[in-house]
Every structure is written in C-alpha cells, then in structure tokens.
Amino acid sequence: MGLSLHFVVDPQGWCCVGAIFFIWLYNTLFVPKLILFPRFEEGQISVAAILAYYLTSIFCVISLLRASIADPGKLQDSPKIPLTEKELWELCNKCNMMRPKRSHHCSRCGHCVRRMDHHCPWINNCVGEDNHWLFLQLCFYTQLLSGYTLVLDFCHYYYFLPLKAINWDMVIFRHELALLRISTFMGIVMFGGMCSLFYTQIMGILTDTTTIEKMANCCDEISRARKPWQQTFSEVFGTRWKILWFIPFRRRRPLRVSYYFANHV
Ligand SMILES: [Zn+2]
Ligand SMILES: [Zn+2]
User: Fold this and answer.
1) pLDDT tens digits along 51-93
2) Can you give the pTM of this predicted structure?
3) By C-alpha distance, which of 50, 16, 67, 4 is closest to 248?
4) Ligand nearest to the CA of 96
5) CA count, 13 A, side-chain hemisphere, 207
6) Phi, psi of 106 (to 5 degrees)
7) Could you say which of 60, 106, 109, 120 is catalytic?
8) Rounded to 10 degrees, what is the CA torsion of 27, 30, 34, 37?
9) Where would I find the Palmitoyltransferase DHHC domain in this sequence (predicted)?
10) How far is the CA of 97 from the centre of ligand 1 (A)?
11) What DSSP string describes 26-83?
12) Residues around ligand 1, an ion, CB closer than 5 A
C-alpha cells in the first residue's frame, strides 16, 4: 500500500490549520529564545529540558501535518466486496456507492470515509479509520507541548531566579513580557481545549464508538466496552506494539480485524 496523500480544498479549513500552525511556530520560536536558552546559559535548566521541548515540538508538528494530508479512509470508486461480508455493506444515498457499515458521508469533503469519527476543521480533514491514530497523537503532543510551555512561562516569572544577564533597555523588556503573555494565553487555550478533546477521544476508543455514532444517539447499546482496551487501541493505531502508538514517523498497517463485524448500524 503506497503512501496516499489527501488534500481538502476548503479555504476556511486552511485558515484553521494556518492558525494552529502559527501557534506552534510562535511557541517553538519564542519559548526557547526567551526562556530556555537564557536560563540554560545561567545554569538554571539542563540541556535535556531544551531537547525535550524541541522533541515534543517536532512530534507535534509532524502529527499535525500528517493528520492533515493523510487519506482518512476514502472509499475506492468500485470496491471489491468480499462475499462473506456482503451483508455488512450498505449503499450511500449521497454518492450512490457501496460502503462498509460505520462509514459516513462527509458533506464537507464530498465522499464517504471508512469508520469516520468526525470532520475536523483544525486539521482540514476528516478523521477516519486511516488517520485517527495521527489525530490522537496530535491531541497528545499538543497537550504535552502546551502544558510544558505553561510550566516554563510560570517558572520564568515565579520560580527561577531573575536573569542576571538582563542589560536590555525597558522597551525590549516590555516586548519580551508581551510575547510571553501571548504564549501563556495560547498555552491555556490549547491545553484546556486539548485535554477535553483528548478525554472524549479516549473514551470513544475505549467504548469503540465514533463521535458521529455518539451524536447520532444510537449509543445506549454501544456505550459499554465490548472489547479489551488493548484491542480497540491496537485497531486504531494499526499495531499491538504500544511504543509505536506514540510514534508519528511510521506507516499504519490495518490489523487483520474487521470493524464491520461490530453490531453498529
Ligand atoms: Zn457517500
Ligand atoms: Zn471531511
């Protein structure tokens, strides 16, 4: 299976992705420059803290870019339906194509997506069977990066000793203060938003229920775990190796487990 790229033409979505990318770039540029490097020079933090920041930042942006341009699980034009699974497929009345159950037609993208979770404007892409794992990584690393940024912003003012090397004039000092206040504001918004989103996503995977299924209010039966958590997570991430669940630099290979055998409608 080759690397399949997917690009949704939606100017509103581009603006949303642009905003997220801007927040990432802003913090990746200013937090090391204003906090990490000066504190390191004065011996208040270690080189490991700087490396950890950059590593989290790289994992964050890679999962953002990959989640945005990965094929979420778009259906092929003429899918081959295995004879044994025929009753597990249905017709989409919008694009008039056969699709496995649990697929959903995304009106924003204009096609059906396998095991679609939702359409996310912040990555300008659907979240479906093939990129759900990247979306989860994005939530995880964004939480980590914004949490780390908030801790650094806090320590910079309230915990670390004042920088001895400050010989800037007042204008530069005020400029630095404004930049860090913006960083703190972004950190609070991102951390708060991502914590609630991540929690919702994890609960969805644990109960093997997509966001669309939850919203369709057909969850009375679904909202209880029917598979071990290791299995539901392994199916989403495409591997049983838990360490690989955290790595965005790899290709997902679907496990030999069919989602369509679940009793979802
Ligand atoms: Zn469709
Ligand atoms: Zn979509």
Assistant:
1) 999 999 999 999 999 999 999 988 877 777 777 777 788 888 8
2) 0.86
3) 67
4) 1
5) 18
6) -90, 115
7) 120
8) 90
9) 89-216
10) 6
11) HHHHHHIIIIIHHHHHTTSS-HHHHHHHHHHHHHHHHHHHHHHHB---BPPSSPPPPG
12) 92, 94-95, 105, 112
Q: Which residue has the tokens 């965005």?
A: 248
Residues in the chain: 265
> Three-state SS for 237?
helix
Q: Is-catalytic flag, 218?
A: no
Read off the amino acid at residue 248: P
d(CA 208, CA 264): 10
| DSSP 8-state class, residue 107 | T
Element (H, E) at 233: helix 229-237
Q: Which ligand sits nearest to residue 95's alpha carbon?
A: 1
43 C-alpha vs ligand 2 centroid, how far in Å?
Answer: 48
Domain-by-domain residue ranges, the chain?
A: 11-261
Can you state the angle between helices 132-158 and 229-237, rounded to 10 degrees? 100
Distance CA 40, CA 125 (A): 39
| Cβ contact 248:65 at 8 Å | no
- How crowded is residue 213: how many other Cβ atoms within 10 Å of its Cβ? 22
CA-based nearest residue to 222, from 235, 206, 238, 236: 206
Instruction: Convert 166-194 into a string of H (helix), E (strand) and C (coil).
Output: CCCCHHHHHHHHHHHHHHHHHHHHHHHHH
Residue with tokens 């049983």: 240
User: What ligand has the least distance to the C-alpha of 72?
Assistant: 2
